[in-house]
């Protein structure tokens, strides 16, 4: 029987990494890639494929199946999830029957609580932790734009058998995905969170891109205040992060495309639902829980919540 990998959420993250999987395994005799989509996205991909545009080229890929019908999708061996954090629970409603006790679930969300939320929904399943560094976005249904050359995927688990983790790593590596099996995945996910949360909060609050954050002293001071606050929260939680996590995070941002924005900022500008609860409010709540002051986060949350 074929190994069946479902991709739930075909945005910048799921679309890009799912696209690499589809490109590599389309003609495979042993692996099948299923895009879980509906509406216009499903229609466009079924007819024209998924288009991925990078700085240097563009590619069109087709999955073995694109559907939102659980009867068509069938049982999944792996499910890679990359919807918005506010859709974690609702996104599983139509495909619950596709997840059986051996399905391995890999969440790739911006927040840090998705794995726990999914484990609550599927207590018998192996739910990994994961995160991705990539600047990418939906241009239109079925079209993904990736900026820059920095894309990395990290995953791991403190409880899953190493044989299962190595098998998934092989699947990802063979598809050309730069993936890393992390022994300290909780800290790795929080390192990503420390990268994305201050950036999303600052860009949305200031309505500025990365370059305008880094090159304006006032804007950068706000951003660094956010970095200090979220790092203090992580320390209070007992996470063993690098001593120079703030410098490392700034260095990562400096290597990012300077004209890039955050997905949360783009959602605010388009008057769409945003991930402010997972990327900004979560830090305020965790700060209160652990007795850490987060005044800059609170200031930004008050504005973004209006």
Task: Reconstruct the topology from this structure.
Blueprint lengths: L2 E6 L3 H14 L5 E6 L2 H10 L1 E4 L4 E4 L3 E3 L2 H4 L2 E6 L17 E9 L6 H8 L4 E2 L1 E12 L2 E14 L5 H13 L4 E3 L3 H22 L3 H6 L1 H20 L8 H10 L8 H7 L6 H15 L4 H10 L2
Parallel strand pairs: 1-2, 1-6, 2-5, 3-10, 6-7, 7-8, 10-11
Antiparallel strand pairs: 3-4, 9-10
Helix pairs in contact: 6-8, 6-10, 6-11, 6-12, 8-11, 11-12
Q: How would you describe the overall organization of this protein?
A:
This protein has helices at residues 12-25, 39-48, 70-73, 114-121, 162-174, 185-206, 210-215, 217-236, 245-254, 263-269, 276-290, 295-304, and strands at residues 3-8, 31-36, 50-53, 58-61, 65-67, 76-81, 99-107, 126-127, 129-140, 143-156, 179-181. It is α/β, with parallel strands linked by helices and 306 residues long. It has two domains: 3-183, NAD(P)-binding Rossmann-like Domain (Rossmann fold, 3-Layer(aba) Sandwich); 187-304, N-(1-d-carboxylethyl)-l-norvaline Dehydrogenase, domain 2, CATH 1.10.1040.10. β9 and β10 (143-156) form a beta hairpin. α8 (217-236) packs across α11 and α11 runs antiparallel to α12 (295-304). The longest helix has 22 residues, at 185-206. It is globular.
Helix coverage percent of residues? Answer: 40-55%
Give the count of helical stretches.
Answer: 12
Spans of 5+ residues with little confidence (pLDDT < 50)? none
Which of globular, elongated, flat, extended, rod-shaped describes the shape? Answer: globular
Instruction: Specify the CATH class of the largest domain.
Output: Alpha Beta
CATH topology call of the largest domain: Rossmann fold
Q: How does the major sheet shape up?
A: 6 strands, parallel
Please compute the radius of gyration using only Cα atoms.
19 Å
Strand content: 15-25%
Listing every helix as H and every strand as E from the N terminus to the C terminus, the arrangement reads EHEHEEEHEEHEEEHEHHHHHHH
Mean pLDDT: 96
Number of strands: 11
Head-to-tail CA distance between termini: 52 Å
Give the class from helix and strand content and strand pairing: alpha/beta
Largest sheet, spatial ordering of strands: 5-2-1-6-7-8
User: What count of structural domains?
Assistant: 2
Per CATH, the architecture of the largest domain is 3-Layer(aba) Sandwich
């Amino acid at each position: 029987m074929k190994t069946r990998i479902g991709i739930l959420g075909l945005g910048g993250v799921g679309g890009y990494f799912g696209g690499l999987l589809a490109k590599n395994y389309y003609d495979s005799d042993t692996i099948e890639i299923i895009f879980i989509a509906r509406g216009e996205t499903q229609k466009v991909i079924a007819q024209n494929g998924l288009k991925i545009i990078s700085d240097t080229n563009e590619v069109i890929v087709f999955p073995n199946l694109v559907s939102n019908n659980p009867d068509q999708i069938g049982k999944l061996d792996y499910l890679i999830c990359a919807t918005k954090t506010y859709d974690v629970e609702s996104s599983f409603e139509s495909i619950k029957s596709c997840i059986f006790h051996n399905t391995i679930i890999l969440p790739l969300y911006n927040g840090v609580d998705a794995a726990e939320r999914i484990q609550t929904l599927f207590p018998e399943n192996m739910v990994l932790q994961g995160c991705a560094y990539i600047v990418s976005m939906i241009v239109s249904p079925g079209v993904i734009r990736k900026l820059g050359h920095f894309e990395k995927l990290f995953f791991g688990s403190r409880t899953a058998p190493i044989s299962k983790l190595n098998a998934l790593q092989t699947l990802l590596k063979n598809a050309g995905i730069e993936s890393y099996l992390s022994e300290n995945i909780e800290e790795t996910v929080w390192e990503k969170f420390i990268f994305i949360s201050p950036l999303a909060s600052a860009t949305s609050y200031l309505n500025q891109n990365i370059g305008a954050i880094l090159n304006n002293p006032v804007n950068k001071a706000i951003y660094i205040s956010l970095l200090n606050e979220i790092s203090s929260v992580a320390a209070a939680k007992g996470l063993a992060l690098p001593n120079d996590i703030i410098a490392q995070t700034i260095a990562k941002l400096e290597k990012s495309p300077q004209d890039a924005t955050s997905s949360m900022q783009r959602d605010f500008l388009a008057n769409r639902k945003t991930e402010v609860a997972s990327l900004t409010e979560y830090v305020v709540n965790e700060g209160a829980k652990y007795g850490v002051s987060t005044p800059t986060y609170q200031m930004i949350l008050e504005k973004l919540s209006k």
